[in-house]
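Task 17 of the worksheet. Students: predict the tertiary structure of the chain below and write it out as structure tokens. Keep your answer in the requested format; marks are given for formatting as well as content.
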Amino acid sequence: MKRQLLAGRFGPDDHTEIPTAADEQLTLLQLVAGEKSLDHGIGGALTSLKKLGVFPSEIGIDLLVVAAHVHAADTRISRAEQSQDSWTREIRLVIPVSDPARWAGAVLTLVKALNFLTGDRWTIGFRARPPRFATIAQEAPPHLDCAAV
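Model answer:
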């Protein structure tokens, strides 16, 4: 059994070095389809939200990216094959976000919640998104305030 490392990538030109321990098996999670379309349901969610007039912040988009990593790890890593006791997996995530320092403050809470909810042992690290994806969020278009007329 190897510990599992799931590392996110923002496109084929994202070559950030991810140090891997000898007892870890690395799986890359490609977050971009094509040139700039976000994958794993993130792009679709952003499109649906835009139609509703909702424009998430960079931190909101980061939360979708975190959720995509957790979902991918939980659904792609076999408990039967990748655990010592047929249940508990050891999973490390390296997640690209807009502000790694801000997310570092949430690591303990996030790890505690995931450990409890899944019965696994999670380790989470954050890294900066590559420059081409440093800003993803769109600002809401200006709207008319009919009450002011």
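Marker's comment: The first strand starts at residue 3 and ends at 9. DSSP finds four helices and six strands in the chain.
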